[in-house]
């Protein structure tokens, strides 16, 4: 059941969603070792890439051993996005470029970027057109949300526009920007987009917490693949489960706590290696502690101490205290992890809806954010 994104075969049809501060090379490697898929970089600002900032260039480097170098860019100016795509392809050997048009973060939408951008349909078209032309034979995809809110839904028109401009696939996080990460994802919107966009693959995103959810989404919506975001937080073995499910094999039971601890130890060491500093690696790992232990009876005090650890020795000592034979109770398999914010009114530039046909790029919207 391979997904075709231009010349790239994605089998199983699973894509890792970019998440700022999470899906760095260490996490991508961890997930990739569990199972195949398309593993995308964290979101990169087009302007920062064109201006060649050191941090941005580090984020763009290919992962050693990765079969496909997939990058995600954000931007609000067609010329800048086009230039960034050329840098990604020519300087960093990108095999696939994804455009983030779904970020709901207020500091982005108030400037007209992210999920606000498809409202300005001409500007949206111009950005997609510039990216596709600059990429040449490298496939370009677009990831978006349903719209700003229920009163301003943009996903069908934006999907058709992206298709007409030559993208290789479109992905929909089936929530509005106003919802942020609250409530249930509206899988019926994925089905509606699939019916509207017929010549390129449509991917669904939202509430894929375990492998069965991916199969259910595809069965219910007819979509061609899934994008996994919060579902893999603290659960990088989800990609192993997805590979099994799509191959028709039995999905393994959730790991015992001892297996989780082994993955946690490897993850924090990959982060320390990535940062070149033990303390920085352990500090980066702190946010992952709660995600890994969600549902396991590890105790609030021990969790708190782990989330404040400053060295590998300290963290290892705390992990040693956990009972390796502890099982994850079935009634907590679907517990959410990661962002739970929302709903929240979306801040837009003045008269943003009323000027939807204005092709002028908004100023100052090229900022880093958490994705869509």
What does this protein look like?
- 39% of the residues lie in helices and 14% in strands.
- The model has no long low-confidence stretch (mean pLDDT 95).
- The chain has helices spanning 25-34, 46-50, 54-60, 78-90, 106-109, 121-135, 155-164, 187-196, 211-221, 238-246, 257-275, 278-293, 300-306, 312-320, and strands at 3-5, 8-10, 14-16, 38-45, 70-74, 96-101, 140-145, 147-149, 152-153, 169-173, 202-205, 225-228.
- It is an alpha/beta fold.
- It has 14 helices and twelve strands.
- It is globular and about 60 Å long.
Question: Summarize this, please?
Answer:
This protein has helices at 25-34, 46-50, 54-60, 78-90, 106-109, 121-135, 155-164, 187-196, 211-221, 238-246, 257-275, 278-293, 300-306, 312-320, and strands spanning 3-5, 8-10, 14-16, 38-45, 70-74, 96-101, 140-145, 147-149, 152-153, 169-173, 202-205, 225-228.
Strand order of the largest sheet: 3-4-5-6-7-10-11-12
What is the third-level CATH name, the topology of the largest domain? TIM Barrel
Structural class: alpha/beta
| Percent in helix | 25-40%
What would you give as the CATH superfamily of the largest domain? Aldolase class I
Straight-line distance between termini: 26 Å
How many separate structural domains?
2
Helix count, DSSP H or I runs of 4 or more residues: 14
Q: What percent strand?
A: 5-15%
Under the CATH scheme, which architecture of the largest domain would be assigned? Alpha-Beta Barrel
> Can you identify the CATH class of the largest domain?
Alpha Beta
Query: What's the β-strand tally?
Result: 12
Shape: globular
Tell me the major beta sheet: 8 strands, parallel, barrel
Order of helices and strands: EEEHEHHEHEHHEEEHEHEHEHHHHH
Mean pLDDT: 95
Residue runs with pLDDT of under 50 for 5 or more positions:
none
What is the radius of gyration? 20 Å
